[in-house]
Amino acid sequence: xxxxxxxxxxxxxxxxxxxxxxxxxxxxxxxxxxxxxxxxxxxxxxxxxxxxxxxxxxxxxxxxxxxxxxxxxxxxxxxxxxxxxxxxxxxxxxxxxxxxxxxxxxxxxxxxxxxxxxxxxxxxxxxxxxxxxxxxxxxxxxxxxxxxxxxxxxxxxxxxxxxxxxxxxxxxxxxxxxxxxxxxxxxxxxxxxxxxxxxxxxxxxxxxxxxxxxxxxxxxxxxxxxxxxxxxxxxxxxxxxxxxxxxxxxxxxxxxxxxxxxxxxxxxxxxxxxxxxx
Length: 278
Ligand code: GLU
Known about the structure:
This protein is an alpha/beta fold and 278 residues long. The protein has two domains: 34-129 and 229-271, D-Maltodextrin-Binding Protein, domain 2, CATH 3.40.190.10; 133-226, Periplasmic binding protein-like II (D-Maltodextrin-Binding Protein, domain 2), CATH 3.40.190. 45% of the residues lie in helices and 24% in strands. It has helices at 2-23, 25-31, 34-41, 68-81, 97-102, 117-120, 147-152, 164-172, 184-192, 203-212, 237-252, 255-264, 272-275, and strands at 43-48, 51-52, 56-59, 64-66, 86-91, 108-109, 124-139, 156-160, 177-181, 198-202, 216-218, 224-232. Strands 1, 5, 6, 7, 8, 9, 10, 11 and 12 form a nine-stranded mixed beta sheet that branches. The radius of gyration is 22 Å and the shape is globular. The chain starts with a helix and ends with a helix. Glutamic acid (GLU) binds at residues 94, 111-114, 160, 163-165, 201-202, 226. Residues 43-267 form the Solute-binding protein family 3/N-terminal domain. This is Transporter substrate-binding domain-containing protein. Belongs to the bacterial solute-binding protein 3 family. Residues 1-23 form the signal peptide.
């Protein structure tokens, strides 16, 4: 009888421990099959930008995040899990996106993210869904017309922490001073207040800023190619393959082009057909 009570006590302890372990995310993430879990909940949780016009921007009127990446994420979710499936959006910045994916707060990152060799060491990427290129945003009439001017004039260039744009510009224009802000909204405010002579990131993002700030323009051409991929945790191969399959299907059905056109056809000077290249 005593032994039975002791065994029962041990069993209860084991149950309590396993409940605690399941409750704290990291352990469950390692064993979690994201595709299966999402199929059961009929939901994909995406990490998206909320400060980036055209890609992912919070509309303060209705509290919804809107943009090309949001519409594409919704289309991929339905393609993968069925018509009634839901895409859930969680805001990330260039510096929070990888930690949030690794912690299991999100299933995937669709946030203007380029699969650099450094990042590939930490996470996996889907096939390319957008081809951007790094450029500069300057005040109209600025003496900075390209990255060479930036270097020669030893100008201050603004960027965002966690973006590869800040590393790229430091390589291409080593004489320029790079000032890093937390997100793109802050970087734009810094440019307007004269803390730097140029802002650097991908052309699509810069065009979004210039629409909102007509006194500023994107300089011609790009100096680094910046393709975008969806980042997924390394152990989630099934989910990554499902994302790639869905991406192929939305491209083939014409839905991808519809979304691309919706967000970029009015953006003067931006060759969005080039961006659609696979
Ligand atoms: N494509 C670049 C990157 O992945 C810049 C855009 C961003 O900051 O998200 O870092």
